[in-house]
Amino acid sequence: MAFLNLYRGKLKQNFGFLKELFESNDISWGVVSKLFCGNRAYLKELIDLGVREIHDSRISNLAKVKEINPDVQTVYIKPPSKRNMEKMVRYADVSLNSELTTIKWISEEAVKQKRKHKIIIMVETGDLREGVMGDHLIDFYAAIFELPNIEVIGLGTNLNCLNGVMPSSDKLIQLSLYKQIIELKFNKKIPWVSAGTSVTIPLMLHQQLPKGVNHFRVGETLYFGIDLFEEKVIDGMNGDVFELFAEIIEMQEKPLLPSGSLAANPQGEVIEIDESLYGKSSFRAILDIGLLDVDPKHLIPEDGEFEILGASSDMIILNLGINAKKYKVGDLVKFNLKYMGALGIMNSSYVDKKISD
Fold first, then answer.
1. In this structure, what are the phi and psi dihedrals at residue 73, rounded to the nearest 5 degrees?
2. Taxonomically, which superkingdom (predicted)?
């Protein structure tokens, strides 16, 4: 049976690297846990590291965090929906918002629950996902800063999440200027400029982060050690906190090309025939994992001597060539994972999740 393994020691090393980095730059930060899809054991690993601020896009996951340790500050990192408002206010201490109507609903619910709810106003800086347009920001803040049971603790932004727009010093300086303008106009203190995500870390590593940015929301770099500018693992971090193990359930030598009349497969793909491969064969392995669990394009084979030929809903097919390493039925094949690959695996109830030192 396929399983995912989390290496506790490697996660701890990555966490320590980032903790030292942020402390040396006097920056607050929280860990984005949405990759874990609410897995209680994995969430506990984060909390046991000393994480005291956890961000997630699923309210049920934040509820589990509060069950494990109610003192952890929880942050809901997408605009809340009206139908989830009661649970969101109950389980999230902070939320990211960009709609006036929504914040009024939050205020009403916070009054009902006799809670103070903290808000980070998201500002549009070019990637065109969530965010208030800069020209409207002053009026937006004026409409919400006196709402009961609401405390605005920051201005934030998301970059590289939809259209791939990368962070830059200019964009982040602009966000810091918005904060200064609001503080001067309304005589109110806004503690955070929450402009940092994993993709912004390289700016800090190269001393290009504007001083006004003082809060980060980090997931991918913690789990994969990745520099998202250069697409490589940062020196001193681990890129293999997670490994996927899949079992070979068939191993046979077969022709390289299918035979018969071809039509689209269930994924809508029509296979192109390379006629130079007629009459040739190779060893093919079938793994006990498929598209229901992960898109193969997000898998990185640890053994570079085979290729992924394709997948169906429950199986992945490998081309092992001459099978120089003598793989056989029952053997485990290891893969490293890209972020979206790990997310797919974590969201699959068909793949076991394990932890080792």
1. -75, 125
2. Bacteria
End-to-end CA distance of the chain: 21
Are residues 246 and 163 part of one domain? Answer: no
CA atoms within 13 A on the CB side of 215: 20
Question: For residue 87, what is the enclosing H or E element?
Answer: helix 85-91
Split into its structural domains, the chain has a count of 2
Q: What is the pTM of this model?
A: 0.94
User: Is the domain of 171 the same as that of 247?
Assistant: no
Cβ neighbours for 279, distance < 8 A, ≥ 6 positions apart: 255
Quick one: how far is CA 131 from the chain centroid?
19
Residue 90 domain-assigned (yes or no): yes
CATH number of the domain enclosing 328: 2.40.30
pLDDT in tens, 184-215: 999 999 999 999 899 999 999 999 999 999 99
User: For residues 306 and 269, what is the distance between their CA atoms, to the nearest angstrom?
Assistant: 22
Residues labelled as active-site residues: 34
In this structure, the answer to whether residues 16 and 122 fall within a common structural domain is yes
Instruction: Say if residue 221 is in the same domain as residue 249.
Output: no
Reported as a single tens digit per residue, the pLDDT across 237-291 is 999 999 999 999 999 999 988 877 778 777 777 777 777 777 789 999 999 999 9
Angle at 244 between CA 241 and CA 250, to 5 degrees: 165
- Looking at the structure, do residues 282 and 300 belong to the same domain, yes or no? yes
Same domain, 93 and 196: yes
CA distances to 111, 116, 154, 180, 209 from 170, rounded to whole Å, are: 39, 34, 19, 15, 10
Range 46-56 burial, b when 16+ CB lie within 10 A, else e: bbebebebbbb
Contact 153, 192 (CB under 8 A): yes
